[in-house]
Amino acid sequence: MSLKYLITGATGGLGSQVLSYLVDNVPASEYAAASSNESNRKRFEDRGIAFRVVNYDDPESMEIAFKDVENLLFVSTNTFDVAKREKQHQNFINAAKKMSVKHVWYTSLAFGGFKDSRADVQQAHLITEEMMRKADINFTSIREGLYTDAFPVFMGWYPSTSKIYLSGDGPIAFTLRAELGEATARLMVQGGHDREIVLLTAQETVSFTDIVDVINETTDRQVETEIVSPEEFVKIKTATDEGGKPKGFFRALETWHAAIAEGDAGFTDPLMATLLGRKPTPAREAVRALLKENRDYEWHQNYAKRG
Ligand SMILES: NC(=O)c1ccc[n+]([C@@H]2O[C@H](COP(=O)([O-])OP(=O)(O)OC[C@H]3O[C@@H](n4cnc5c(N)ncnc54)[C@H](OP(=O)(O)O)[C@@H]3O)[C@@H](O)[C@H]2O)c1
After folding, report:
1. What's the CA-to-centroid distance between 216 and ligand 1, angstroms?
2. Of ligand 1's atoms, which has the minimum distance to the CA of residue 180?
3. Binding pocket residue ranges, ligand 1, CB within 6 Å
């Protein structure tokens, strides 16, 4: 019997939201959750959700799990290491091809809109799209908006930060992760978009400077920003980063800032609002809400040891 939807990354922030939409809107026999860790089986099965082990480092696990799957959500792995991501993603695509999965829904990133971007973090996504074309599988690459929730890591802000160093600023269509999850699920259920790239974003853009204004207004802080050269940026941040991230991270982040300054994060598309049937939450409003709930809001990826 075929399985209509298999959701990888179901333990993560994005995949859990996709799954939650299916739980509320689709018969339980049509979907299953996946994680690389067998120990997560119980938490899904206790909720009446079928479970399969999918480990991108273990091709055999995927060949077993992808059997008779129609729609496969392919959550990009949560590493900034481009080479590691490439290998894991190639394993995934090989298994999807071998098991004749009908449609792979890949969670890419919105740097560049529908074009290519030189932001380091976008490279593994561009390579993955090319791998799917070469493998001749049916796929949709969902270029997911930059998470509003992740603003601290994009701009190097911690609750203790009074000065933010950036190597560039520009328009960013920051988009809430939970809403991206819902829109992604709705897209999969709707179907179509064969061998296409789609862009899911909020409808408005903000700059890092706008976000700093929201931080200051909402939490009564006096945070300042300074734009410095790429070399200075890498030097200052490597020497002072509270989260202990390594030099390589800041070399990469500098390219994200350069791409943002060139307008690569400023593309918006109406598809997300159409899928949701409402306007996605604008970034200013979303950041204000996050900081009102917790004045010392943090994002795990800002800390080298929190993954
Ligand atoms: N758009 C943005 O601004 C933005 C920001 C941050 C990240 N991202 C990207 O979006 C992706 C999804 O975001 P998220 O917030 O859901 O990330 P997340 O909460 O960190 O979840 C990542 C998921 O990847 C799974 N995973 C990790 N290694 C795996 C492996 N070897 N095999 C199979 N599954 C594996 C994890 O599941 P298990 O550990 O249970 O296997 C987890 O469910 C991230 O992975 C990252 O690539 C995007």
Report:
1. 31
2. 1
3. 8-9, 11-15, 35-37, 40, 54-57, 75-78, 88, 107, 109, 144, 146-147, 150, 177
Number of domains, the chain: 1
- Is 205 part of a structural domain of the chain? no
With the most atoms of ligand 1 within 8 angstroms of its CB, the residue from 77, 81, 146, 303 to mutate is 77
Report the length, in residues, of the chain. 307
Q: Give the separation between CA 31 and CA 41, rounded to whole angstroms.
A: 14
- Is there a domain that residue 38 lies in? yes
How far apart are alpha carbons 42 and 134 in whole angstroms?
37
Q: Are 172 and 265 in contact (CB under 8 A)?
A: yes
d(CA 29, CA 108): 28
Q: Is 240 within the bounds of a domain?
A: no
Residue 222 domain-assigned? no
φ and ψ of 227, to 5 deg = -90, 125
- Six-digit token string for 77: 């792995």
Strands (E), 87-195: 103-109, 139-144, 163-166
Show the domain range for 71.
3-145+174-200
Q: Say how far apart CA 224 and CA 162 lie, in whole Å.
A: 6
In order along its 307 residues, the chain shows pLDDT tens digits of: 899 999 999 999 999 999 999 999 999 999 999 999 999 999 999 999 999 999 999 999 999 999 999 999 999 998 877 788 999 999 999 999 999 999 999 999 999 999 999 999 999 999 999 999 999 999 999 999 999 999 999 999 999 999 999 999 999 999 999 999 999 999 999 999 999 999 999 999 999 999 999 999 999 999 999 999 999 999 999 999 999 999 999 999 999 999 999 999 999 999 999 999 999 999 999 999 999 999 999 999 999 988 6
Residue 49: give its domain's CATH number.
3.40.50.720
Q: How many angstroms separate the CA atoms of 191 and 207, rounded?
A: 34
Q: Which residue's C-alpha comes closest to atom 25 of ligand 1?
A: 9
